[in-house]
Amino acid sequence: MSRLFDAVAMLPNAAEPVPGWVTGGQPTEKQVQDFKAAGGEVVVDNRDPMEPRPFDEPSVVRAAGMEYISVPIVHGAVTTDTMKQMRETLQRLAGKKALLHCSSGNRTSAALIPYLMVDKKMEEEGAVDVAMRGGLRSAELMELAVEYARGVTP
Q1: Order of strands, edge to edge, in the sheet holding 15-18?
Q2: Per-residue exposure over 21-39, b if at least 16 CB sit within 10 Å of its own CB, e if not
Q3: Domain boundaries, the chain
Q4: Which member of 69, 79, 86, 97 has the lowest number of beta carbons within 10 Å of its beta carbon?
């Protein structure tokens, strides 16, 4: 694994599905700082802004000199538009060192599936396997992500 992954290895469901992108659950303030020290550039937060947090993540990320992007994936309210917005965000991250997270890695990993299938040309089974290693546990989110990816013209 990379220095980026090593910096946040204790992150719940930590994975590196794409070189330079680490996914997982909610990081601590120290993990954010360690990620920056390892070369991190961007933090993508998929948590609902109303979810309780252990610290002021946007402020900590920006104070560390990284870009903070919020793309909420809200429990029970995920749509194909959510998947589209996340895929567009991931396309803009190409070549950047990023930490992508929700509370456990479930939502973030599901939202990676369309990017992996469409943009990285990964087979559906492989994309789902990568997402499951990163914490995907919701069959509903997996199905929504796969259906969205199947309908996207690259």
Answers
A1: 15-18, 21-24, 98-101, 42-45, 67-70
A2: bbbbbbbeeebbbbbbebe
A3: 3-151
A4: 79
Contact 58, 32 (CB under 8 A): no
Alpha-carbon distance 147 to 82, whole Å?
13
Phi, psi of 141 (to 5 degrees): -65, -40
pLDDT in tens, 32-43: 999 999 999 999
β pairing state of 21-24 and 15-18:
antiparallel
Question: What single-letter amino acid sits at 30?
Answer: K
pTM of the model: 0.94
Q: What is the pLDDT of residue 77?
A: 87
Q: Which amino acid is at 76?
A: G
Backbone angles phi, psi at 102, to 5 degrees: -130, -150
pLDDT tens column, 53-105 = 899 999 999 999 999 999 999 988 889 999 999 999 999 999 999 999 999 99
Dihedral angle over CA of 96, 97, 103, 107, nearest 10: 40
CATH topology classification for 3-151? Protein-Tyrosine Phosphatase; Chain A (3.90.190)
Give the H/E segment covering residue 142.
helix 139-151
Q: What is the pLDDT of residues 80-92, one digit of tens each?
A: 999 999 999 999 9
